[in-house]
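Submission checklist for the structure archive. All mandatory fields must be present; incomplete records are returned to the submitter.

[x] Identifier: Bacillithiol biosynthesis deacetylase BshB2
[x] Organism: Jeotgalibacillus alimentarius
[x] Residue count: 227
[x] Sequence attached
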Amino acid sequence: MIEKESHVLVVFPHPDDEAFGVSGTIASHIKSGTGVTYACLTLGQMGRNLGNPPFATRESLPEIRKKELKAAANAMGLTDLRMMGLRDKTVEFEDDEKMVNMMQSLIEETNPSLVITFYPDYCVHPDHEATARAVVRAVHRMDETTRPKLHCVAFANNTGEELGEPDVVNDVTEVMDIKLNAMRAHISQTAWMLEDLEKRLGENDPEAIQWVTQERFFNYRFDQGYE
């Protein structure tokens, strides 16, 4: 049973970040009547997949990914989608305070009881790391008595060894089809992965089934992290 929230703020840097890790959780909150805001920092302009033969150019890819992001939001029932206008693969070079201020403004406006993002140092991509640091710093600067919960996605190879088992495991079996549809919406980047995933689901592969029915999060540990 996913805990009831007053509002959820999700912050990731790229279109499709939400689909892989948290689309089931987003859909579950929406189905329970909880408002969800998703702030996507870039349009994934530098996504590596342009097709073979190419279906897009560097110039046309942003518009394709923007349409896919909107389609994924529709699949999840998400109505509050924010496209924050940063450029893919440059988030790490943005001014730290500018990034923190952006996150503080989002938090002040949406007043979430739960914020979802990546876990700093355990999310591999430089844009992921920069996003996570900014969110953590914005939440950390809040008074402890009014801070929202901060659930973080972590998938670096050393996650289990250093963070242990996830603190929160959401069962999203009831919205598994919505999760798959959110991933399908980002087809320009997910086609190769979805083909393999759906084949494995058809074979009742336990790992594949777990991947689409459970979403895992770590509570951010403010006593050992960024200030």
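[x] Structure attached
Curator remark: The CA atoms of residues 69 and 218 lie 25 Å apart. Strands lie at 7-12, 35-40, 80-83, 114-118, 149-153, 168-171, 214-219.
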